[in-house]
Amino acid sequence: MNKLILLGALFFASLSSHAQVNPHEGYLITNSNDTIYGTIDYLSDEKCANECLFKATNDLDFKAYKPNEIKGYRFFRDGVFYVSKNFPVDGVEKTFFAEYLVKGGISLYHYRKNGQDYYFFENQEGNVAQMKELEFQYESSEEQRMAIRENLKYVSQILKKDPNTVTQLNSRTRVSEKSLVNLVKKYDEKFCTADGECIQFEYETKASTSSSFRLLAEAGVEFSSMTLSPANDYYAKGGDLKMESSVVPVVGIGSRIFFPRFSNHFYVDALLKFGFVNTHSNRIVKKVYGGSPKVKYTNGEIKLDFGYNILPDKKLSPIVHLGILASEALNVKIENAPGYGFQDMTGHCFGLGLTGGLGADYKLGNHHLGLSVDYLYRSYGPMGNKVNGFAANLKFVL
Q1: Nearest one of 129, 145, 123, 49 to 91, comparing CA atoms
Q2: N or C terminus: which one in the chain shows less Cβ crowding within 10 Å?
Q3: Cis peptide leading into 318, omega within 30 of 0?
């Protein structure tokens, strides 16, 4: 258990050492149209709208830029693009960094303030219309229809060339960035009269998401020992029954969850795992049984693992992780061990545990190959049987 405490301290120390910024490569555009390359702190939607924390390639420190101090900024990895704009928000002129969703004949922007999402439609003449994401908690359908019409009153003037587009918006009780992007793209492509491309920039929904899920496969071996506790006071005089160390093959399937808007260092692995345990003890519990105690079972387990990638922008990076385990011993078979058992009165044996370890992550294009050495501890009820040891795991993220 002391090993897990040490790993936990290392895990949280890694978090605190990188908690100040969430660095992503990118560039900013000055008011004189110069492009400066460097690192941008990838913040939440609301923080990104208020300032850009930027560190030029050869600089040591980040500098904060407010809207109108620069024209805009953009991230390399996912292309998220912010531009300085002065738009009316609920009738009041505000200056902020608007997130570009579409740049074309009709341009579309996103802005978030106090949990409210705003979308702005701008035509080539500079006319702007605001549209809010409504919650639609109204007493009647008529009241809801009136709210939608009011919300789209000025948007319909911007999109006046195609009444069908406005009709589509009127018929929706929910809007998403993806659906609005597709709608504006179709409008621009239909009415584009420019000689060049109609769409000069398009928001990448997948890249800008606050979390992403990737398929994860894991295989490894555990080197663990087990201690069985006696079932009652009658057998207690025999003490705990310690089994010999065993090699347990383990396989798992699940998902790795990334949080690019929070940190490109942090991830969570959610796995369903199975281990196949077959162990014995050299101690004879009762000579009448004529053999050494044996335990055999399948360990079904849900593992929730919190990982920290120390150098996420490098091809090879060290990692540290800490996780929790929820286990069920299945198909338990115990031989030559009277007074020792696993299951409760219902025939089940549920256990909880902790795990933590160190390892390395290697990038293979868009995939990840990981190797870790972990310490693990499990306690199974109701008798408190314990398993502890080490594991070596190979992980592949698709």
Answers
A1: 129
A2: N
A3: no
